# Entry
Amino acid sequence: MNVYKPKPVSGFPEWLPEERLIEQQWMDHIRKVFESYGFCSIETPSVEELDVISAKGEVDKEIYVLERLHKEDGDSGKEARLALHFDQTVPLARYVAQHFNDLVFPFKRYQIQRVWRGERPQAGRFREFYQCDIDVINVDALPLHFDAEMPAIIWEVLSGLPGMETEKIQLRVSNRKILLGLLDDIDCDQVEVLRILDKIEKIGEQETLELLQSLSGDISGFAHVLVKLAAIKAINSGELEKKLQDINDEYILSSSSESYVKGVGDLKAILNYLSHLPEGAVVADLSIVRGLDYYTGTVYETVFTDDPGYGSICSGGRYDDLASSYINKKLPGVGISIGFSRLFDRLRQQGNFDISRKSPADILMILPDEEHRETAANAARILRKRNFNVELYHAPQKIKKQLSYAERKGIPYVWFPDLHQVKDMKRQTQAEATPEHWQPEKD
Amino acid sequence: MNVYKPKPVSGFPEWLPEERLIEQQWMDHIRKVFESYGFCSIETPSVEELDVISAKGEVDKEIYVLERLHKEDGDSGKEARLALHFDQTVPLARYVAQHFNDLVFPFKRYQIQRVWRGERPQAGRFREFYQCDIDVINVDALPLHFDAEMPAIIWEVLSGLPGMETEKIQLRVSNRKILLGLLDDIDCDQVEVLRILDKIEKIGEQETLELLQSLSGDISGFAHVLVKLAAIKAINSGELEKKLQDINDEYILSSSSESYVKGVGDLKAILNYLSHLPEGAVVADLSIVRGLDYYTGTVYETVFTDDPGYGSICSGGRYDDLASSYINKKLPGVGISIGFSRLFDRLRQQGNFDISRKSPADILMILPDEEHRETAANAARILRKRNFNVELYHAPQKIKKQLSYAERKGIPYVWFPDLHQVKDMKRQTQAEATPEHWQPEKD
# Structure
């Protein structure tokens, strides 16, 4: 027979069983935290109609459209064109609009699914990956409470992931109203100004200042204060207050701007709500802007403090109107998204995972000979009822071979049903046991 | 703004939060059972190269191929064509071949993913759905042990699904070697004979007999014995033995056929292995054939006894050679697959689910006023540490409004942090409680 040797497809990652075990631990943990705050799960189809995706205008994202391989003549035109979703925000907006009357608001949902980007194959760039999103959507108005809940949840999620070095993660929060409020009265290209300020950590304060001063319009007189503002980092509302005051003493901020005042007030309130978190876990960082046409208030980013150039691993913010393309309702929301697969793959490549277990089995039940099959099967059943995962060895082969199988799969305990004994593979100890009462030793 | 009112896309189901909660219970249960037998999880990308899918020859399945919406000129031809997988067997074969050296055999894996069929839109036909598969793959030879493990696992899975009426499920097992062994010496169109015998339950013994007798070849003399065989149903190996003996007394079965003898022996051994299951949960049913070119020994089907016409909800069998299209190894396997979404949707439509809960929250924490925010948040955190899911109400609104929110989301308990009391929404009772020690009453 002809053999077609398969190769990995660029951008479509897959993991070995021992890596997948860790991925499941991550997923379980994320789900547990999301649900512990009362977020419900939804899943949407992998596809949306192209008309839904492009309801706001032309789609600039790289997306995959579907074609049926065995399309019959005369099929085309009748059916709606389908595309794989490239994020979970468009599907959420469509879902909320479509099921509006069946949902209870504020609608708190999480969504853990794959998304697709039809990009050119490129090293390190995923074309299929998991995203873990939480959003809260409400009708007409949305309390600030939820803006503050997001970083608390994300902190709990990220700091509890197996293999994650918690001390290296920092959540950064800002409010776009602060900078935009100040810019409102200034004749300048706001988008361009924000784009420059966003890079302040990378390029430094001096270069930021020079770039701002080179812009046309009235900006150059404000460049100093903007740079000072964007450079602010504060671990609590008191520090934020003080740093803003320092600038104000020098420059007199336009504290008459309603937007500025609201932005500062909201940001301080959020920091106060988060005072139970470890110091420095969440910081106010006024340089955070996040995209330029979507978010309207609070914005979030999450970086590795030892590698900020890697970019944000978890971002989001508040938007005024989620689903106006699909329904005549004002639906403000706030949400945050973890780029799961990229983060997982980073820690995987860094060797942060314990991949010694290749099987979920806690115990390998030895099959000493055919005569003991029923005894062995019965012991396995009793242990399973007690929530242990038990693999019954498949043939009465040499004990050495069975032990080697447990070792190669990383199964931590081996049970000898004929001897009524359990072997601890790590400690290399063996002891009497009954399936009704055995407990593994605590590590 | 222009509003594009979205409609459901035919064949791509999605569920409301209260239905999704049940779907998660199903998934969790299935995973738990699979893992309790030592099966590890893998996931493969949603796509395979079209060359991989068609390595065995032309693809007769309806599949979706991907096209990039914003394809640049000159892109085509360079990249491999990608198609969404239509099952999890082709991806498994490719996975095993590709990672052969990193896997420990026998390789026991489960896979719970979406698959796609690019069919014409049609009522009741899914184009995207979940499949839950388990397979065991080994090198060169595979012990019968695994053929017997499959029905035990599936029985435990199906009988434990919330909303499932266990007494209506029946697993049917046969071995294709039995009928094929008998047909080996007969000049006939085997495929056609099997196709007719497969329908015996639907069309009855008399019509089956007539159809067989109308075939060309030497078949008509054997038609009686084939019909009697295919009509055999036996709940244990003793009954199977006896029923075969009865036929043999009358017709003299060609027990000289090695294949027949092996098939009967294997089937009896499997029934013996399964003697711990409730009587009638698994029956030998010699009419089961399952596809005509794939399985080589044991075959499985699962039907609703009160609606056998609905078709099999969970099927599989043994195959001699999984991955010969991709690797020069003999890799026999045995596997079984649950058509998850179709089964879930059936029970959903039949109203078998308790959909009173629209949220995973166990407790709604009342926010009586802003002064109690920290007290409330702190009580919520303590309860979350104790593994309760707690939603903190988002604004200090009227208590009546907060209670109504809990009711509409089906949250079973409401906590008053100012009163140190908990209200049981079902029993409509209220009692003193501390977040450190509270336990819900058992139902």
